[in-house]
Amino acid sequence: MSSRLSLSGAQSKVGLYYAENSAGGTWYLPESTAPSTHIVKTPQSVFPDQTLNEALCLETAKLCGFDTAEWTLLKLDGGEPLLAVRRFDRIFPNPQEKLISSLPAPKRLHQEDFCQASTKKWASRFARAA
């Protein structure tokens, strides 16, 4: 599965659109410039429990009173779980307006991390302090 995400970080990820329905919900791979609603992270062979660890950290932060993104673990047949995190940089200003394949179209909110804002190179994000 490929994606056009321009998301920083070391973990493999794909942007998907989730639409709730009477069956619980359906996942879609956005086409062209259609926005995603979730970032879905996959475990890596080097760090097989990475998605579980991130879910644990998100839940711990939430229980400590911090605001966290909504998340869920997706279990696939025989594989390790995927971590689906609802994007906080998407809003639905008019959910009644159906624009993309009869689904509500989220609006993108611009976000940058500190390295992007300071024009630091990606590799320097993980450099150790001297």
UniProtKB/TrEMBL annotation:
InterPro entries: HipA-like_C, HipA_Ser/Thr_kinase. It comes from the Bacteria. Residues 5-121 form the HipA-like C-terminal domain. GO terms for molecular function: protein serine/threonine kinase activity. Keywords: Kinase, Transferase. GO terms for cellular component: cytosol. Belongs to the HipA Ser/Thr kinase family. This is HipA domain-containing protein. The lineage of its organism: Bacteria, Bacillati, Actinomycetota, Coriobacteriia, Coriobacteriales.
